[in-house]
Write a structure and sequence with these properties.
Layout lengths: L2 H11 L4 E4 L6 H10 L3 E4 L3 H15 L3 E5 L1 H7 L1 H9 L4 E7 L15 H6 L4 E4 L6 H12 L4 E7 H5 L19 H12 L4 E5 L6 H14 L2 E4 L6 E3 L7 E2 L4 H8 L4 E5 L23 E6 L5 H11 L26 H11 L5 E5 L7 H4 L6 E5 L8 H11 L5 E6 H4 L5 H8 L3 E7 L4 H10 L5 H5 L8 H7 L4 E4 L2 H13 L4 E6 L1
Parallel strand pairs: 1-2, 1-3, 3-4, 4-6, 5-6, 7-8, 7-11, 8-10, 11-12, 13-14, 13-15, 15-16, 16-18, 17-18
Antiparallel strand pairs: 9-14
Helix pairs in contact: 1-2, 1-7, 3-5, 3-15, 9-12, 10-12, 13-21
């Protein structure tokens, strides 16, 4: 086999089964290898940001890495925003980036750039292959590194991909399981047992049902509140689960919420900070007098840590029904659409076991509380804050879980960053319902103007105006059935119809 086939076979042998790709000339041997080796599903993205965002969504749902093939440095650069989101989410991902032929690099061809320096900004592991004989080892190390909850980027020169008589060798997974420090567990339990207002603050790439139920037992045992980041990577929500409070986006609201606690126990999360630096507002939300205890800042098995903490607290099975969210769908509203009505309709209609990818920004603020008592579902959010995640992440989630409906609750401005994902949805026949919040402006920037205490003048208004975007035409042009609605009644009708169908749909919701 040649170098590219060796690389693909090694990836397949280590569990990679999907490849999101936007290849170019320097990656063609890898594309051919996907055919000759087999066993890895290729998915084409028309923009690298779709590929990287899809690989992120796939990892968030399955807790296993996908592969992304990107074209040289500019291709990696095109995918960098969603790689940033994936890094913040601790998603497992393997990027394979083609490089120019080794002897051609010195000529400084037009597409040449320092790929490795760019890869360093988002990758926990990165390497440039310098010998085809190392392909198996390098790819195995990349996959094993990604499985630690990070991005691994492997850069492969074109000529080495074509080199013949390259042997594939299975390289064992050298990851050592991180052991729990039980003395730390005892210290955390002692803090939570104290007669003080306490919060258990946890974050992870996947806050699953079992982890949440362990957290609920801890809450029942010591009365602590359960908190997570403003933008969790993946959290299970709904009836029968404990309600986990998100940190508000606005710093004043976040500081007010956190000020009532005397003790914080953090698991897999850093101390919360403001998204931006505002004059007169501290970077960190907690005050000097509040006790902080970090059980783990590293990506570990959240469930194992919570179970150990519950055991130390003698937290038995849940007997207090009030610890868990009861079942109640929100009432279906009527009349002209606004943010609250949109959130209410989605929460009222979304099916059990749905996957909701929420990048609605300002329109979606009320969705989290409104959906707290509906049938259980998975929620994925904008962990790194880089816009353009929603549609690509939905693609990855739909490919990871083809039997589950996916709802992409999407802001119009953010959606324009990666609208090419709609084409992939249509091509792959993915069961994704894209709900566009068409307020025709960057409302989040208007909010920030208000924080500055100024009114947008001519230039500022011009640079936040998104009028004229016809999402129905855009969706249809990409092969996705699309409609426009202006009232809650119309949204109920069209969303209900879309959910009854398999395949992609788009609804432009006019606010």
């Amino acid at each position: 086999m040649n170098g590219a086939e060796c690389l693909v076979k090694t990836a397949k042998d280590l569990g990679i089964s999907v490849c999101f790709a936007n290849p170019g000339t320097t990656e063609l041997p890898l594309v051919v290898a996907l055919d000759t080796v087999g066993g890895i599903r290729p998915v084409l993205g028309l923009f690298e940001g779709v590929c990287t965002g899809a690989a992120d969504g796939y990892a968030r749902m399955l807790q296993k890495p996908a592969m992304a093939i990107l074209h040289l440095g500019p291709g990696l650069a095109n995918g960098i925003a969603n790689l940033h989101n994936a890094r913040r989410a601790h998603s497992m991902m393997v990027n394979v980036v083609g490089e120019h032929t080794t002897w051609h690099l010195a000529s400084d061809p037009p597409l040449a750039m320092d790929i490795e320096s760019l890869a360093k900004t988002v990758s926990g592991w990165h390497r440039t292959c310098n010998s085809a004989k190392r392909f198996a080892e390098d790819m195995a190390n990349a996959v094993n590194a990604a499985k630690q909850g990070q991005i691994a980027t492997l850069i492969v020169p074109f000529d080495l991909q074509k080199e013949k008589n390259v042997e594939a060798a299975v390289v064992p997974d050298s990851r050592g399981k991180q052991s729990i420090h039980y003395e730390e567990i005892k210290s955390a339990a002692a803090l939570l047992k104290k007669d003080k207002k306490a919060a258990l603050f946890f974050s992870h790439n996947h806050i699953g049902r079992d982890a949440l139920m362990a957290a609920a037992r801890i809450k029942q045992a010591c009365g602590c509140d359960l908190l997570t980041d403003n933008f969790p990577a993946h959290i299970e929500r709904g009836a029968g689960l404990p309600d986990v409070m998100r940190i508000p986006y606005l710093p004043e609201m976040a500081m007010d919420m956190l000020s009532k606690y005397e003790v914080f126990v953090f698991i897999g999360s850093k101390e919360p900070v403001s998204f931006f630096g505002y004059e007169g507002i501290p970077a960190y939300y907690l005050k000097d007098g509040q006790t902080r205890f970090h059980l783990s800042n590293k990506p570990q098995d959240l469930l194992e840590i919570l179970e150990a903490l519950a055991g130390e607290l003698d937290a038995a099975r849940i007997t207090d029904a009030g610890i868990l969210a009861s079942f109640q769908r929100p009432k279906i509203p009527t009349g002209a659409l606004n943010s609250f009505k949109i959130c209410s309709v989605i929460a009222a209609l979304q099916p059990e076991n749905a996957i909701v990818v929420e990048e609605a920004v300002t329109t979606g603020v009320m969705y989290y509380p409104v959906a707290s008592n509906i049938p259980p579902f998975s929620l994925l959010t904008l962990t790194g804050g880089a816009l353009g995640q929603g549609a690509p992440c939905a693609v990855g989630a739909a490919i990871a879980c083809p039997d589950r409906p996916v709802i992409n609750f999407q802001a119009d401005g953010a959606g324009m960053y990666t609208l090419q994902a709609l084409w992939t949805e249509a091509k792959e026949g993915l069961n994704i319902k894209t709900l566009i919040c068409s307020n025709r402006s960057y409302d989040i920037l208007k909010l920030e103007y208000g924080r500055l205490g100024v009114l947008p003048e001519t230039c500022a208004s011009y640079l936040t105006d998104l009028s004229g975007i016809d999402w129905v035409s855009l969706g249809k042009g990409m092969g996705v059935p699309s409609v426009r609605v202006t009232t809650a009644e119309e949204l109920v009708k069209e969303l209900g119809k879309a959910l009854d169908e398999k395949g992609p749909n788009l609804i432009q919701m006019e606010l």
